[in-house]
Specification:
Keywords: 4Fe-4S, Iron, Iron-sulfur, Lyase, Metal-binding, Pyruvate, S-adenosyl-L-methionine. Its cofactor is [4Fe-4S] cluster. This is Pyruvate formate lyase activating enzyme. This protein is of the alpha/beta class and about 230 residues long. The chain has a single domain (about 5-230), classed as Aldolase class I (TIM Barrel, Alpha-Beta Barrel), CATH 3.20.20. The protein has helices at about 55-65, 85-95, 110-115, 130-135, 140-155, 170-185, 210-220; strands at about 10-15, 25-30, 70-75, 100-105, 120-125, 160-165, 190-195, 230. An eight-stranded mixed β-sheet has the order 1-2-3-4-5-6-7-8. Helix 6 links the parallel strand 6 and strand 7 (about 190-195). Helix 3 (about 110-115) runs parallel beside helix 5. The mean pLDDT is about 95.
Length: about 230
């Protein structure tokens, strides 16, 4: 598929938070096969929603920002849900930008082909392997996600693993189990972020926030396993 067929759900021309240490633009790719209750971009879930933003418009803007922006981030939705993502990544690299990718790993084979082009990956790990299918409402999601994580680790690309926590969906024991698995696989950079229920796909989730006890638990039980750990609200 060509870059022109990329379905874009939104475009942010400048961000300092979506690619660590770099000035970046973000392309939000339309569509995701998963239906996580806490998804904070539910408008990006349908594959066929038309935002009115085209690749040609984004490309024209990026051409003007060469030398001013450091990087372009492909986010979503799930970027690897679209076959046009490979040609889009190649076009971004051809313009001289670093390439960042936000992914949940729903399509491990497509991700594996994309990784040689990536300079940084933010990987959203949802839950334990056994709980994935229930959380995402999708069969085999857990197998695909954890396989994608293996591809990222084996590629050697700079990456951050992010775990979004809602205590109604993920227990401390499960978080500890995930952290142990990540540490054993050699992950060094972990971010643990609290779910924002007011913006989620399933609005019926109860309110969710960090407590001092939560912070102590993460500092004592999770942080020692990683070179870098970020706790985000």
């Amino acid at each position: 598929m060509t870059t022109e067929s990329l379905r874009i759900g939104g475009y942010t021309p400048l961000t300092t938070i979506d690619y660590p240490g770099e000035l970046a633009a973000v392309i939000f790719c339309q569509g995701c096969p998963w239906r996580c209750a806490y998804c904070h971009n539910p408008h990006l879930l349908p594959a066929d929603t038309d935002s009115g933003v085209s690749w040609l418009q984004v490309q024209a803007h990026l051409q003007k920002r060469r030398g001013l922006l450091d990087a372009v981030v492909l986010s979503g939705g799930e970027p690897t849900a679209q076959t046009a993502i490979q040609s889009t990544a190649e076009a971004i690299k051809a313009m001289g930008f670093k390439l960042g990718l936000h992914t949940g790993g729903a399509y491990p084979s497509r991700l594996s082909s994309l990784l040689p082009l990536c300079d940084w990956v933010g990987f959203d790990l949802k839950t334990t392997p056994e709980q994935y299918d229930s959380l995402t409402a999708t069969r085999t999601a857990g197998v695909r996600a954890w396989q994608s994580l293996e591809h990222i680790i084996e590629s050697g690309v700079n990456h951050e693993v992010r775990i979004t926590v809602h205590w109604h969906l993920l227990s401390r024991a499960q978080l500890q189990f995930m952290a142990d698995l990540l540490a054993k696989r050699g992950v060094n950079n972990l971010a643990v972020q609290i779910c924002r229920t007011s913006e989620g796909y399933a609005r019926e989730l109860p309110d969710n926030h960090w407590t001092d006890d939560d912070r102590r638990f993460i500092a004592e039980a999770i942080a020692p396993h990683f070179e870098q750990l970020a706790l985000r609200a």
